[in-house]
């Protein structure tokens, strides 16, 4: 990680495979310290601002808890309350907040919004989910898979569902970074954005990951070590919910689909989930599911991001 200039965390792809590995190592170490009750106040006296333009349970609480465990504090800023929601510019908001806080986490719609914050702020900007990327979640997913499988390189991940969303995009980049193979299956017209697939394939060339984008859930699930899905209707797409319900029916993660995976596959979902839509209850609540480890790991993975970006050098 460059130490000369402030660094943001907007996508997985802007970090090298070595840097992603470094973040995972930091997360493993701090998780162990936390479990043993050993204080690790790397961000003592530091403050993280957190702007939310969309709802959140996990992201809000895990970032706030992470800052407290690191000896700092976090401030929740709803766009309903701050002047940004009344039209104050992103540039002015970024410049003002840079004078108050040491880092800023943002959950918003267009990815260009976090990029504009990053360009105008003097402090690290952390992506807490945009329409096209959810990198903090995927770092937690990689940590979870590593904990359950003991490795990442060479595993096969299967992603079934909406390919053109934040989770699928960040998983493509995350799998590529870690040398994990990834096969996606989405209805026609809901494939991942090709520029993100191309970027992931470039990373994959270096790491040996094989990326396959398709429309056949069975093909994607065959011999998978990890099965992942996400909601069919993401935040901001509510008007399309009914149409999506029909188009995605054949892309449910259920017992039949999982029978094509390895016997010891694990199931991940970033949550919130809709039982009997994208995943059946017997899978998400069954023995292969690691969704609550995954949710817990948001804290540990994000502490690594916060430490690496915000610790005084
Ligand atoms: N997975 C996730 O980001 O959850 P929240 O929307 O609750 O933050
Ligand atoms: N794809 C989902 C993820 C929620 C954490 C959404 O954007 O709503």
From TrEMBL:
- The superkingdom of the source organism is Bacteria
Chain positions recorded as L-ornithine binding sites:
166, 230, 234-235
Q: What does this protein do?
A: Reversibly catalyzes the transfer of the carbamoyl group from carbamoyl phosphate (CP) to the N(epsilon) atom of ornithine (ORN) to produce L-citrulline.
User: What name does the UniProt record give this protein?
Assistant: Ornithine carbamoyltransferase
The catalysed reaction is: carbamoyl phosphate + L-ornithine = L-citrulline + phosphate + H(+)
Enzyme Commission numbers on file: 2.1.3.3
State the compartments where it is located: Cytoplasm
Enzyme class, broadest EC rank? transferase
* Family matches, as InterPro entries: Asp/Orn_carbamoyltranf_P-bd, Asp/Orn_carbamoylTrfase, Asp/Orn_carbamoylTrfase_sf, Asp_carbamoyltransf_Asp/Orn-bd, Orn/put_carbamltrans, OTCase_ArgI
Please give one Gene Ontology molecular function term for this protein. ornithine carbamoyltransferase activity
Report residues binding carbamoyl phosphate. Answer: 56-59, 83, 107, 134-137, 270-271, 298
**Its annotated pathway?**
Amino-acid biosynthesis; L-arginine biosynthesis; L-arginine from L-ornithine and carbamoyl phosphate: step 1/3
Gene from which this protein is expressed: argF
UniProt-listed NCBIfam families: orni_carb_tr, PRK00779.1
């Amino acid at each position: 990680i460059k130490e000369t200039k402030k660094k943001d965390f907007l996508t997985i792809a802007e970090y090298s495979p070595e840097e992603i590995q470094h973040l995972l190592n930091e997360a493993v170490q701090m998780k162990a310290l936390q479990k043993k009750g050993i204080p690790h106040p790397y961000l003592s006296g530091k403050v993280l601002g957190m702007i939310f333009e969309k709802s959140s349970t996990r992201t809000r609480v895990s970032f706030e808890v992470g800052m407290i465990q690191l000896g700092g504090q976090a401030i929740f800023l709803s766009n309903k309350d701050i002047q940004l929601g009344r039209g104050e510019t992103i540039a002015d908001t970024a410049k003002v907040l840079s004078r108050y806080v040491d880092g800023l986490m943002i959950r918003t719609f267009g990815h260009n919004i976090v990029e504009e914050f990053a360009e105008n702020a003097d402090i690290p900007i952390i992506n807490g989910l945009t329409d096209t990327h959810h990198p903090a979640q995927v770092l937690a997913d990689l940590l979870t898979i590593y904990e359950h499988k003991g490795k990442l390189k060479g595993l096969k991940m299967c992603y079934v569902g909406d390919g053109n969303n934040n989770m699928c995009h960040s998983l493509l980049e995350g799998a590529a970074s870690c040398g994990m193979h990834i096969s996606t299956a989405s209805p026609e017209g809901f494939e991942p954005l090709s520029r993100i697939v191309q970027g992931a394939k470039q990373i994959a060339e270096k790491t040996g990951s094989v990326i396959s984008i398709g429309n056949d859930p069975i093909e994607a699930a065959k011999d998978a070590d990890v099965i992942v899905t996400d909601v069919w209707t993401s935040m901001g797409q509510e008007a399309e919910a009914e149409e999506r319900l029909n188009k995605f029916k054949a892309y449910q993660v259920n017992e039949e689909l999982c029978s094509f995976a390895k016997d010891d596959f694990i199931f991940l979902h970033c949550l919130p989930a809709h039982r009997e839509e994208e995943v059946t209850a017997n899978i998400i609540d069954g023995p292969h599911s690691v969704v609550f480890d995954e949710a817990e790991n948001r804290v540990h993975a994000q502490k690594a991001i916060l430490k690496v970006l915000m610790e005084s050098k």
